[in-house]
Each structure stands twice: as C-alpha cells, then as structure tokens.
Amino acid sequence: VSDNKLTCSPVSGNPLKLNYLYYKESKVHGRLGPDNFSQPSGSLPFQWMRARWTSDPCYAFYGVDGSDCSFLVYLSEVEWFCPPLAWRNQTAVFQSEIGTLLEQVGTGKESLSFMKRRIRRMAAQWASAARRLDDKLRAHWREQKRILVHVGFLTEESGDVFSPKVLKGGPLGEMVQWADILTALHVLGHNLKISVSLKELHGFLGVPPGRGSCPLTGPLPFDLIYTDYHGLQQMKQHMGLSLRKHKCHIRVIDTFGTEPAYNHEEYATLHGYRTNWGYWNLHGQQYMTMFPHTPDNSFMGFVAEELNETERLNIQRNKVNNMAVVYGKEASMWKGKEKFLTILHRYMDIHGTVYFETQRPPEVPAFVKNHGLLPQQELQQLLRKAKLFIGFGFPYEGPAPLEAIANGCIFLQPKFNPPHSSLNHEFFRGKPTSRKVSSQHPYAEQYIGRPHVITIDFNNSEEFDATIREIMRINVEPLLPYEYTCEGMLERVHAYVQNQVAWPPLSALRLLASSEGQSCVTACQSAGLICEPALYRFINIKEAFGGLDFQCEGVEFEMNHLFPAFSAEHAECGLQQDPLLFSCAGSSAKYQRLCPCRDYRNGQVALCRDCL
Questions:
Q1: N or C: which end of the chain has fewer CB within 10 A?
Q2: Is the per-residue pLDDT at 218 higher than 70?
Q3: Residues in domain Glycosyltransferase family 18 catalytic (predicted)?
Q4: What is the pLDDT of residue 604?
C-alpha cells in the first residue's frame, strides 16, 4: 500500500493464499458451492468480478479498479466473502504539515475560520510535541486508523447556533476542543475525514451509486467515528437500525459527561434518569469529556498554549502587580457583580473583554477598562501582564482559566454552597449527570489549587477583601498541567485510539470499599487513586466481597448503578446484572460500594502507569 493506492504482488513468488471462512447466497454472485478456493484468482467470485466489475459504478465507488488486488480487497472488506487482510493495516506516521488538515476543515462558517486560525497558531507546538512523543514511542508500532470526525453541532440542520456568535463573545470552548481533537488525530498520522454537514456525512457513510449490486449496509468504512450528541442523532436518522451494529466504533465528545444511569435507556426510564441527552446505551467510556471530572467517561481534553523559556522570563519581568482581568465576554455575566468589583477596584485596575458593537455595555462599571472582544493573541498578551484572572461563576469549566494560569495569572473563583447540579440549577437541568459542581472550575480547584487557584465565598466581603490583599503579596510561576499540553493530549489520544478496548491491564486494579454514602469517585480519590469503570468486570463476583472481609448472607443480581455493593443492614451483597450500568458515580447511605481503583501517570490522570 503506497499513498493510499493499492499495489499488489505475490510474496517470494508464491501466489496469494485465501481460505474462505464461509459461503453465502448473493444476488450478485449466486449460490457459492464447495469449490477449491485456495487460488483466489481461479475462484468463482474472482471470475465474476473480472467479467462484471464494470457492470455497476458501485464497484468503483468501493475502490475496484480491475486489478486482482482490488477484487481481493472488495471481497474481504465489502462483501465479507473472505477473512480480513493483515497487510491492509498501515503504519501511522507522525505528520507535522497541516495543509491537508486545513483544506479538510473547509470554509464558509466563522466557526470553521476560528478553528483554522487556532490550528495554524498552534502548529509549531504540535510539531514539537509530536517529535518528543515519537521518541518516547520509538519501539511501538502504531496502526493507522480510518477515522471520521462529524461535528454535529456545527451543521445547519442542528441550528449551528455557535457560528453567528463567534465574533460576538459567544462560547468558544467546544470549538477549541474540536480544533485540538482534529489536530491531534491528524498529527498522529491517522486517515482522517471531516464532516460539518449532513451532505458530507451521507457521502462518507454513504449509499454507493449505481443499480444496487453492492450491499447497502456493508462494513463501516471507518474504524472510529468522533461526533457529538447532535451528530449521533443525525447518524441514527441516516443509518437506522444498522447504527446498532456499529455503535462500538463511536466516540461522543460530551463536555459535561454522561453517567451510566442516564445512558442506559431502560434503567433511566424506570428510575427517573431519562433526559434529552442520555439513553444511547453506549459504554460509559465512549463519552469523552473536556475535563477529567467523570471517570465513568473518558477524558479527551484540549490544549493550552505553552510558553518557551524566553516568554516565561518576559512574563516575570512584565507582570503588573495591581492588574486584574475579568473572565466574562458577555455583558449579562457582569450583572449583579458590582459589590465585589468595587472591593477589587480598591486594590487593582480591572480590565474586561466584553463584546460591544457601538456603546459600552451598561452592566460593566465605569471604572473597568473594557477592551472589547480580543483576538486570541491579544488576549494572551493581556493575560501575560495581569496578576489576577477572576471568574464570576459562569461559564462553567471553560478553557480560559487554564490559559490564564499558563500565562502566570492567579485564578480567583467563587465557591458554590450548596454545589450546583441538575437538582438545583437551571444550567445543569436536563444534562445526563448528577455531578455536584463545587466551584466555577472544579478541575482548577482540585488538580491545581493554591497558590495558582483560590476558591472562596464571594458573598463574604471580609474574606474577599482579605484574599485580594493576599494575592497582592503572592508571586506565581506560569503553570500548565502536562495533560493540557500538546504532548500530553497526543499521548492520551494515541493511547485511546490504539488501546482503549484492551486496557487498563488487570495489574492496575486496586480494590477498595467506599464508606456508606460515598461514591467510588470519592473513595478512590481519598486513596490517591482514580476510579476505573473498565475494571468493574473483574470485581463483579462474590469472591471480591470476601477479599474486603464482607460476609454475604445473601447475594442478589440486579440492574442497579450502585452495584456491586454491600448492605450492612441485611448483610447482603449486590452484584451488577448489566455491564452498561457499571458506574463510579453515585452513592447511597444504604450501601458500601466495591470500587475498582487504579494508579495514574504523573500529570496524565487518564492513563494508568503501564497504559502507554
């Protein structure tokens, strides 16, 4: 295989051998009898293909060009007459040239222009990271995968509400993440197709042209499909029941996560977890989040721009000790914030980046210097001068705080008491998760923390005042967690694409029991570990309870997202009946849960130490 064009020849002078696994009835080839198929060139299917391959354009659609090699590929990969061909697996080679990627992203929407600008700006950092990871993986063969990326929320059919807002301060976090996913897959050397319209989606998944001689629902032409909830719905409408056959190939980019109780359609309907977004009956790790907040899902992430040594030194020299930048591009985010802004203004000059067309937004106090909406590079320069980046509580879990911290800012954010969730806050209502959000940016609070991240009650004026005075005395170095660097994301995506169905290894398992009323997320975290739902299958047995000194007087199998778990009241052990409900999330005062914990790589929480 060379440049995706097939060349085929016998090895060492011996003809290609082909053992047919089964014969089938076909309207094209007729009934196949028990002929001698050891020589494919003399077999009935090959004879038919030689004589009739031009009879229907669908054969050319599937790559048939009249050569024996193309007949062999067609008969093994489209009609499934013969086994897969090992030599069709190509090696993935790191690629730093981004021209072909930019062409594939396309034009015509401001959202696509934003993504292309980001890809260009970050290209050098991706190339440098690829060289480092290539050195690290030198001994590992990587299979090139055929990958479709369908960005459903940017299609006209889904409303494409984001594109008109790109230049007006609208949310950009999703587009940042998608741009980085596309770049990571491209740089890792995979065969990538990109779709941002239903027409493109139909073309890639396609119905072959012609008179119907080729199968309409043959093998999926992709090893993996990355999409979102909008795209998943569009694929269901296009593929119908055949989608079930191909579900395992799908990865859903899902900012806030989907917990198993919401994902399992029957269980969600029976137990009140049904929402507009869940119920797809996927495995939890097929959902990929922006931050590692839900271990039931996979952490995809994004990247923040890294500083070189010269830039780091310049930041230390140019920091303005009394300069603060507010996290909030939309005027509505500033409403009702005058009280603590007035306190902040006693100590610091406050800068904003709030979008406006002609007049200054009235929600922004007069003492704030508003720069309007800034291009990314100008925003970076502003953050490199500022001492403080302050959040108002919304938006939740966006990229900007990590970018500010990477540019040497302290991030100050409000604590939520009680935590925000789908039970008490409109924003989370209807989202397929029961997660309780303790602050505007829980990742920054939990995984970074002081002195770079300070989380306080903004309603306590005395605490707010004291914290600002404390910040004036603190100097911090720029900080970017490894998992949000280009190399960290490449490492993580490489591991997902190559190994996700077969890891982590059993050797990573650390079995713990939660306290009553405690989730496995919290139980594992308290031991310095991560809950790993892929390992539940090893502990969903009666013997696991004995390993933790639980004495089972009775054992029940049940569809319950808290199982496996132990009930002390009844001395009863509960085992999970449906693997789709294995969940790290969820707790009950009735149960101590069995928790499959694992270790993780330094700076890369998504991967165990032996998972690269």
A1: N
A2: no
A3: 58-597
A4: 96
